[in-house]
Design a protein that fits this description.
Elements (H helix, E strand, L loop, with lengths): L1 E3 L7 E3 L2 E4 L7 E5 L5 H6 L4 H22 L12 H13 L32 H4 L4 E6 L4 E6 L2 E2 H4 L8 E12 L1 E4 L4 E4 L7 E6 L3 E2 L3 E2 L2 E6 L12 E14 L5 E15 L1
Antiparallel strand pairs: 1-4, 2-3, 3-4, 5-6, 6-14, 7-13, 8-11, 8-12, 8-15, 9-10, 15-16
Length: 269
């Protein structure tokens, strides 16, 4: 892979080379085509380890996809592609499994859930640079619930409104995701607890004027109580928070502006 440093804006394929862009970058990426055929990779003994690694990678990407759902929709505010970062997180956890052979190593996220605490959905303006007042969270695993407290704020001073938009609102999400293990019977990775992989609920606050003074807010989120009896140690609960900015829409009421805001994970329990 190479970076094309020129004024030529080229995307597509030419003479065995592919040219494309990635989200979050204005540079052109160049990659050569070719390599072993699909049939060779699938059947040749030379590629046995590669096939095992590919099988594990499928489990990582499946887990990362469900983990993103557990962010309860708040990941839409992200200013970069979260998927590679979540794939890498899953792979690092998978590598710690010393009890299974290559190709069948589990993704036991419940043992490493703390590694996601503070995970930011934004790189240009991380959450703490946008909302400059303390945010605390209290969790109750047995009740599948969390309580988020946002300190009193003067939005004109305590909120970094990068795009100078007129409205903002607070979002809080609570989601759940299960560990995943390889199942020989299906030759695939499956959640240990499929009933909570994933589930989520989202609190969406009222639109506020960006010059408002807001008193302390206590926001409570809880998953469906019917799921309490399904909770097992393999399930991780995730609390996320975001600030979203908006403008007056065609109908005359505020609506969100794409990618305007910031969010992060504030608790995994």
């Amino acid at each position: 892979m190479a970076i094309v440093n020129s004024t030529i804006q080229l995307q597509g394929s030419i003479a065995g080379m592919s040219f494309y862009k990635r989200r979050g970058s204005d540079k052109i990426i160049a990659r050569s085509k070719g390599g072993a055929s699909k049939a060779m990779i699938k059947n040749s003994p030379k590629f046995e380890n590669l096939r095992l690694q590919q099988n594990e990678w499928k489990g990582c990407t499946q887990f990362a996809s469900k983990l993103r759902y557990a962010f309860a929709g708040l990941h839409r505010i992200a200013d970069y592609n979260l998927t590679p970062a979540l794939n890498a997180l899953a792979k690092n956890i998978q590598k710690t499994d010393g009890g299974n052979v290559l190709g069948e190593r589990a993704i036991v996220f419940s043992d490493y859930r703390y590694t996601l605490d503070g995970f930011n959905f934004n790189r240009s303006y991380p959450f703490n640079t946008i909302l400059r007042v303390p945010v605390t969270v209290e969790t109750d695993r047995k009740k599948l619930a969390a309580q988020v407290t946002v300190t009193r704020m003067n939005a004109g001073n305590d909120l970094l409104n990068v795009q100078k938009l007129p409205y903002f609102r607070i979002l809080v999400g609570l989601g759940a995701v299960s560990d995943m293990r390889y199942q020989e019977s299906t030759k695939s990775y499956l959640p240990v607890n499929g009933s909570m992989h994933p589930v989520f609920t989202t609190y969406t606050g009222e639109w506020q004027i960006c010059e408002s003074v807001l008193e302390k807010q206590i926001i409570e989120v809880q998953l469906n109580e019917d799921l309490i009896e399904n909770l097992t140690e393999e399930v991780t609960l995730i609390v996320s928070i975001a600030v979203e900015f908006g403008k007056v829409g065609f109908s005359g009421i505020p609506q969100e502006v794409k990618y305007a805001g910031s969010g992060k994970v504030i608790a995994c329990f």
